[in-house]
Amino acid sequence: MKIAIVHDYIKEYGGAERVLEVLHEIYPDAPIYTAFYKEDSTTYKRLKGAKIVPSWVQNIPFFADKLHSPLRFLTPLIWGSFDFSDYDVIIGSASWYITKGFKKGSNTKEICYCHTPPRWLYGYKTSIEWQKYWPIKLYGMIIGHFMRLYDFKMAQKVDVFIANSKETQERIKKFYRRESKVIYPPVSLPRTNNQQSTNKKEDYYLVVGRIVGSKGLDLAVQMASKLNKKLKIVGIPAGYYTGYKTLSKNTSKNVEFLGYVSDEELVRLYASAKAFLALAEDEDFGITPVESMLCGTPVIAYYGGGYKESVIDGKTGLFFKNYTLDSLNQAILKFEKMKFDKKIIQNQAKKFSKENFIKSIQLTIEN
Question: Which DSSP string do the residues of 116-154 spell out, in sequence order?
């Protein structure tokens, strides 16, 4: 089969990009089509040997850095510039850039791996919380109306929808009126078994992910200050999030921003942490909590979104149900009186393995 992979854009590195990596691993000869890429980005560097084909906006100065968000109304022209008629299968990795409904041949099968319908179009929290600024909100409302119509129209052209979680499956049904199958994202880490056997727990809580406005970092930092707990934050600022400087300046000495770390160091941090904090209000799925569990570390999570599908309350972690500092603090204090079985935690994480993902993707494409 002649296969093409299509991804929103290659810039920031997160859960969607981990999925893209594995898709490339499964189909190394498939070119990766994308709106644009940045050569100095983590994602680009990790896609070694991949044939990456950008759209015409790659040649627009500052598009990748500053213009791709305000000029998002160009999306129809971006994807419309590609013709996939010669391909047997298109695998779309779709999130906020409406990466679906491509120009294709009558026998071309389009499979959309949907990380979520674009959050900015359907009222979910986004990384920059642009709704706070009325000129941008007005602009977004006008553009959003037409882009929702376009998004719905393109969704009807997809042959098979794959959702990354039941949470996303419900969104696909609600916004696109389409059925989908759930294939959870691949979760794997290097040298995991060796690290798990040697690392001892240290006295800190851990947060991992892009430093953006929708991940609950403020709540984590406030908790660390209020309860005088050590907190380590792995990740770099992404997108147009402007709160990082304020957040880092106002933190107490027991909060440490580690920036980007290698996968090996990440495993060590996961395995050594007292617990992992998963604090997004409506996470699409959430790979990082599962990575933590793979290292035998329990998760303290808000009871919402995809977290409800991966964390087992009282066995692999603990939920707090009110999105407030007091509710999180109570969960932390309760957690510190509990004991968790490392094997149970790891066995739960293995349900979301890379091997399961590969088998399910191959079955979907080949049938």
Answer: -S-GGGTT---SS-GGGSHHHHHHHHHHHHHHHHHHHHH
pLDDT of 231-252, one tens digit each?
999 987 765 455 556 676 667 7
Distance CA 211, CA 238 (A): 6
pLDDT in tens, 269-305: 999 999 999 999 999 999 999 999 999 999 999 999 9
Q: Where are the domains of the chain?
A: 3-186+353-366, 192-350
Architecture of domain 3-186+353-366: 3-Layer(aba) Sandwich (3.40)
Those residues whose C-beta lies under 8 Å from the C-beta of residue 111, and which sit 6 or more positions away, are: 89, 90, 91, 92, 158, 159, 160, 162, 364, 365
- 192-350 CATH: 3.40.50.2000
Average pLDDT of the residues of the chain: 90
Question: What string of DSSP letters covers 322-359?
Answer: S-SHHHHHHHHHHHTT----HHHHHHHHHTTBHHHHHH
Q: Is the pTM of this model over 0.70?
A: yes
Mean local confidence (pLDDT), 348-367: 94
Q: Do domains 3-186+353-366 and 192-350 have the same CATH topology?
A: yes
Helix axes 354-366, 15-26, angle to 10 degrees: 60
